[in-house]
Amino acid sequence: MQRTRKVVITCAVTGSIHTPTMSDHLPITADQITTAAVEAAEAGASVIHLHARDPRDGRPSGDPALFMDFLPRIKQQTNAVLNITTGHGPGISVDERLLAAKAARPELASLNMGSFNAGVMPVRPDTQWKHEWEKPYLEAFRGGIAANSYETIERILTEIGLEHGTRFEYECYDIGHLYALAYFAERGLAKPPFFIQCIFGLMGGAGADPENLTYMVNTANKLFGDDYYLSVFAAGRHQMRFVTLGAIMGGSVRVGLEDSLYIGRGELATSNAQQVGKVRSILEALSFDIAGPDDVREMLSLKGAHQTGF
């Protein structure tokens, strides 16, 4: 692992799992996503991870036109590295998942390194939903798989990475995903330095236990040596304490309303910037320096914002 005193804070501002009923503070429209991203950057996030939503009802969407409603505006207002998803949610085909990244040609994109049973159950039967799509959308996770086959991973590495110069945040939900990355690295399709995002606490992936983080880090060290940077995030109530542990172990951190809707026990976060500010204060209290966007570009050998498609 590359160790640095400068910790990268990534903020994932909306995601594709939480629905509007869960929080009134979840960004939905292009204006809301733009404001959330800019405020998070001002609070200390140097990487902004972005999904799009249908502004009419908050439904997750891979429509590149929706991404283009906010990407140029965020770029104009901040120097942060903009990281585009290649994921999305149930019912969105691989072709649809790649449309936004192909159009945007971002410096950085997310890439899940394997398939798993991503669970967000249970859904409370007495929930009063704002929109009809929310309940069946969430229940679809029970019968579906967050699918990223080797074929799909190779396609993304080629069509987004090699063809457009985009580098990746490699999202690893379990040990096998690290070995998948090592396989593609050996083939030369994934190139160092690797930005490995280890994810914990999501049903179907590694649990949010310190022993699992240690195991993931030890395995990554064995497979990649000094050719990678570690980042960590954990879902829901595990968020802050787990990312703090990740930083102490030499990694960077990710927060945001995609990963947790809360700022404390039973208290909804009012913004993404609130979470960024909290984790930044924790890191600075532990004598860590916070990486700026240009630090990230140097660390990860990114192509620069001037070479994106927005």
What is the CATH superfamily label?
Answer: Aldolase class I
Output the CATH topology. TIM Barrel
Mean pLDDT comes to 95
Strand order of the largest sheet: 2-3-6-7-8-9-10-11
Question: What would you call the shape?
Answer: globular
Keywords: Metal-binding, Transferase, Zinc
InterPro entries: Aldolase_TIM, BKACE
Cofactor: Zn(2+)
Organism: Sphingomonas canadensis
What does this structure look like?
- The protein has a single domain (6-307), classed as Aldolase class I (TIM Barrel, Alpha-Beta Barrel).
- α9 links the parallel β10 (228-234) and β11 (252-255).
- The chain is α/β, with parallel strands linked by helices.
- It is globular and about 50 Å long.
- The mean pLDDT is 95.
- The strands form 4 sheets. Strands 2-3-6-7-8-9-10-11 form an 8-stranded parallel beta barrel, surrounded by 9 helices. It has a two-stranded parallel sheet with strand order 1-14. A two-stranded antiparallel ribbon has the order 4-5.
- The chain has helices at 30-43, 64-68, 71-77, 94-104, 134-143, 150-162, 175-186, 210-224, 239-248, 272-285, 293-300, and strands at 6-7, 9-12, 47-50, 52-53, 60-61, 81-84, 108-112, 167-172, 194-200, 228-234, 252-255, 262-264, 267-268, 289-290.
Per-chain topology:
Layout: E1 6-7, E2 9-12, H1 30-43, E3 47-50, E4 52-53, E5 60-61, H2 64-68, H3 71-77, E6 81-84, H4 94-104, E7 108-112, H5 134-143, H6 150-162, E8 167-172, H7 175-186, E9 194-200, H8 210-224, E10 228-234, H9 239-248, E11 252-255, E12 262-264, E13 267-268, H10 272-285, E14 289-290, H11 293-300
Parallel strand pairs: 1-14, 2-3, 2-11, 3-6, 6-7, 7-8, 8-9, 9-10, 10-11
Antiparallel strand pairs: 4-5, 12-13
